[in-house]
Every structure is written in structure tokens, then in C-alpha cells.
Write a structure and sequence with these properties.
single chain; alpha+beta; Ubiquitin-like (UB roll); five-stranded mixed β-sheet; globular
């Protein structure tokens, strides 16, 4: 599996381990990083798992629901994604992400 590198809100860089079938949100939480609330549990309905993806890894296109939720955040950027919507299986290259500031 490609390397998964996440920077938390304090600026600490973490190399994550992920189980097959996990999303980035699940890997973040399972690796003991609790900067994201993930209130909806990964059902794409809260935007509390917002990250900035700094990577060339080919990700699935953003859904309309994900786009609408990100429109409601104060910290949206061009590289914003919801970590619950990033499936880690099948990544062809390393994935780097930064946890967005809390709204």
C-alpha cells in the first residue's frame, strides 16, 4: 500500500497504517489522531472530517453531497475533501493530507 502521511492541527506529521477497505477518516482515527470529530461516522453528512489533500494520488471524483458540505465550511480550499470519502484501496501513489481547521 502507498504511504499515507497526515499532518494534524498541531503540525505533527504522522505516517499512518491502514487496513484494507478503510477510508482516510477511519485510518486517521484508528491511528490515534483525534483532531477530526467525524460526527456522522463517515456517511458524508457533517463535514467534520475536512482535510486538505496535497497529493498526486488519483482520488475518486467529489460527489455533489461532498461538494455541498464543503461549501458550508469556513476553511474550504481548492484541495479540500472529506476524509470519509477518500477510499484508501487502490491508491497508486502516496497520499498526503493536512487536517483542516475546525469550523
Amino acid at each position: 500500500m502507498p504511504e499515507i502521511i497526515v499532518t494534524d492541527r498541531a503540525g505533527t506529521v504522522h505516517n499512518l497504517k491502514a487496513a484494507p477497505g478503510q477510508t482516510l477518516m477511519e485510518a486517521i482515527r484508528d491511528n490515534g489522531i483525534y483532531d477530526i470529530k467525524a460526527l456522522c461516522g463517515g456517511s458524508c453528512s457533517c463535514a467534520t472530517c475536512h482535510v486538505y489533500v496535497d497529493s498526486a494520488a488519483p482520488l475518486a471524483p467529489m460527489s455533489d453531497d461532498e461538494n455541498d458540505l464543503l461549501d458550508g465550511t469556513d476553511h474550504r480550499q481548492a484541495n479540500s475533501r472529506l476524509s470519509c470519502q477518500i477510499k484508501l484501496d487502490g491508491l497508486g501513489s502516496d497520499l498526503r493530507a493536512v487536517i483542516a481547521p475546525e469550523d
